[in-house]
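Module 6 notes. Inverse folding takes a fixed backbone as the condition and produces residue identities as the prediction. Think of it as a translation problem where the source language is geometry and the target language is the twenty amino acids. Below is one complete input and output pair. Work through it position by position during the lab.
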């Protein structure tokens, strides 16, 4: 394969997803590819009493996230197809790649340590990498890219420093 025709970019809509969007656009421009933009509403978390309200809010966030990708891509002359799905994010990303005949998946990661992944119920990106049958480009989302993560990262780093007998490390 000389280039990609269809690039699936999965977003969670966070401010930190900007590098993921930029990477997918750069890849699409280099390959003269179209972008399949995907947002997955994770249906596992809302309680039954608040389900409709929470899902509606998540769908609104997803629509805005997909519009952001579309705006950025069309500024560079890239064709975008937007997809809003419900389900388990990692499963839906892999299924969408297959359904939309994507050649590559672009996702982001916060680069959490093993304990960080455990606390945050695993890594969607890690599961996508393990189960996808096509290449997956992983773009690191750094705290500087996502203001909401900067505070979490500084608290995590500070708590690691306070553990007696354990030197702080930069987590991978």
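Target side of the pair, the amino acids:
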């Amino acid at each position: 394969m000389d280039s990609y025709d269809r690039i699936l970019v999965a977003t969670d809509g966070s401010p930190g997803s900007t590098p993921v969007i930029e990477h997918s656009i750069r890849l699409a421009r280099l390959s003269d590819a179209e972008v399949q933009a995907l947002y997955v509403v994770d249906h596992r978390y809302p309680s039954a009493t608040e389900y409709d309200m929470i899902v509606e809010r998540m769908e609104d966030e997803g629509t805005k996230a997909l519009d952001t990708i579309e705006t950025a891509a069309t500024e560079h002359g890239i064709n975008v197809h937007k997809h809003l799905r419900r389900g388990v994010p990692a499963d839906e990303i892999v299924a969408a790649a297959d359904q939309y005949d994507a050649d590559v998946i672009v996702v982001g990661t916060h680069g959490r340590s093993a304990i960080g992944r455990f606390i945050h119920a695993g890594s969607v990106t890690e599961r996508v990498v393990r189960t996808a049958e096509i290449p997956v480009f992983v773009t690191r989302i750094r705290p500087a890219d996502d203001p909401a993560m900067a505070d979490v990262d500084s608290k995590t780093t500070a708590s690691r420093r306070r553990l007696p007998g354990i030197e702080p490390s930069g987590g991978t």
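Reference fact for the lab report: The first helix runs from residue 18 to 31.
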